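Worked example 4.2. Below are the chains of a multi-component assembly; read each line carefully before continuing.
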Amino acid sequence: MSTRACKPERWGEADFARDAQQVARSLLGATLVRVCDDGERLAGTIIETEAYLGGDDLASHSAGGRRTARNESMFGPGGLAYVYFVYGMHHCFNVVTGRAGEGQAVLIRALEPTEGIDRMRAHRGGRGDRELCSGPAKLCKALGLTRQHDGVDLRESSTLFVVSGGPIADEAVGRSARIGVDYAGGWAAAELRFFVLNHPHLSRREPVSHA
DNA sequence: ATTTAGATCCTCT
DNA sequence: GAGGATCTAAATG
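Applying the procedure described above to all three chains together yields the following C-alpha cells:
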C-alpha cells in the first residue's frame, strides 16, 4: 500500500497500437473491466498473457494473413476485442494490437478477480476464488464474455475496457513458451507467454525453481 | 499428485 | 469431414 506508482488511467489508442509483445508485457498489472447489463462491474488484475504475432507466426489465427469471418476483428486496429469460440464450448478473449491489417493480438490467460466476485462465482458454478479466472476460457465464463463481444472497441466502449495498474517490476515477471500450440512448428517454442511469478491465480503452477 | 478421456460445435478445407 | 490458443471429472500411482 505504500507504493502507488501511477494513477489508474484508461488504456487508449497509443497503448494498444504497440506491438503484441510490448502490450503483452505491459498488460500485466492492468485491470480488465466488464460492466454488465445491470450496471454491475466485474473486474480483475491481468496476471498472465500471450502474444500472437501477425505474419508468419504459425500459432496465430492470423497466420499467413488469412482473413476469415472468424478472425476478421484480429485484423482491425489495436484496441479491438477479438473473442473466439473453441472446442465446442469455450470462449477466449484477446486484445488486438498494432495497426490495422497486421493481425497481432494478445490472449488474456488469467486474472486475479477484484470486483464483482460473487457474480463471477455464480457464472462459474460456485467455485473457489482461484478457479474463477485462472485460464483463458474460465475468465470469459466468469466475466460473461462471448462472441457477442467480438469486435468491441476497448478504446471507446463504456462496458468493456482496460485500466492501467501495476506496474510490475521485471524481476516479478516470468516468460515461457505459449500454451497449447504444439502444432505451430518452430513457433511453438517462442517465449511469448508473460506472467507474474508465483502468483496464486495463474492458469498453471510454475515449476519450483532453485539456484 | 499426475494422467486420460470426453464433452461438443463452430469454422474452414 | 476434421480439428481446435480448453476444462473437468474420473481413474490411477
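Take a moment to check your reading of the output against the notes. DSSP finds four helices and eight strands in chain A. Chain A has a mean pLDDT of 92.
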